[in-house]
Fold:
Amino acid sequence: MTKKRTRERQESEQQRESRKEILRKRREAEQTRQIRLAVGGVAGLLLLVLVFALVNELILVPDRAVAAVNGEDITVRQFQERVRYERAQRIISLENQYTAFGGDVGIIQQFSRQTIIDLQDPETFAESILNQMAQELLIRQEAEARGITVTDAEVEAKIGSYFNYYDGGLPTPTLTATPTVQPTPSLTPIPTAVITDVVPTSTPFPTPTLGPTGTPQPTATAVSLDSFDQQLGDLMTQFKDLGVNENVFREVVRMNLYTEKLTEALGEENNVPTEAMQASIYLLSFDTQEEADAALTEIQSEGFLPVWNKIRSTPNSPDNTATASELLWRTQDALASSLNEEVANVAFTLPPNVPSAPIEQVVDSQTQTTRYHIIQVSGREVRPLSEAAIQNAKQTLLQNLITEKSPTSIEIFDIWRNYYPSQPTLDPKFLAPPTATPALALPTATPNGG
Structure:
């Protein structure tokens, strides 16, 4: 009996241990399952986050709007591609200059200083490009509202013109300025003293991007198709190396054409004049009122042109700041721009061959620098306007349209600040200090008797 009870007790203990083992294994299996589920859940969540991030970065973000023009969006993708293009264009220009100037960084820094500054400030640069894109989109909308279109063939022809390729033809002749007839004064000035000052005309904002920087300008000699293909291919390779899509280049050209066509249309709509009243004047200028008054006294006794000739042939000095020049056939607006409104008004009201009283011009309002002018009108008549003046008038109409429409048509969203690119980057060689000019060695004095 004792052996039997012992055996039964052992079997009972074995059964209890077996049940404990089974329960332990079950608990371990359950824990393992829960751990696997937790790990799988975390991995799945991380995967979802990664997928969402990729979708957001590659699909959602590029299609987000950084600006809108009359409800039409400019997307992050378009903005980034254009900024990269504009940066690449300037870098290519600097590289071309580097080659042309034999690696002289000093010359490049002198003539392209603003370009280098722009490339070093990617945020400000990107903002200016975004504003330009918005204005270009507004221009395109205004052009299309007038039935203006730009075809792919026109885009290709325009690209060809940048490289002086005209598909076997010759460039369209450009209009030439009307020959200037010099006025005949009562006295003939000293021939070498008569000069023609050129009044610079400013191009109103926005300044359209005119094709690839450094591209040869059209001349009377057209290049061959092979030469054009080679040059265009080289440029596209440069863009590709800098991460720029070729399609962006063509889109910029298309926008340029829209701008050109709308500018011409505005000229026709507003009947931009091709001729205007113009005046030619002899001009005496002085730094002080005393010099001007003394010259006027001399003019009253000797005549304007003898005094003009004497001043024109006399070099300037600290005691003599007078200068003499001749401005031939200028409109009233041109004179107002180059001098001031009062001089322009006098030039178009003063009888010919009568000297004016001294007219004050504030040259620098901050330093209160002034000049004093005495003029004499040598001719005034209606004359044809130069092509430059006509184009300037049309550009003013375009700028006025943009200024009028922009406040209600253009929206810029601050999100652009999160996505502007800073590539391609400027090569550090353009930031290096220019090489100093070697000092000339002075000759060694020879000892007496040596």
Summary: The CA atoms of residues 18 and 259 lie 90 Å apart. The radius of gyration is 38 Å. Confidence is low (pLDDT under 50) at residues 174-220, 445-450.
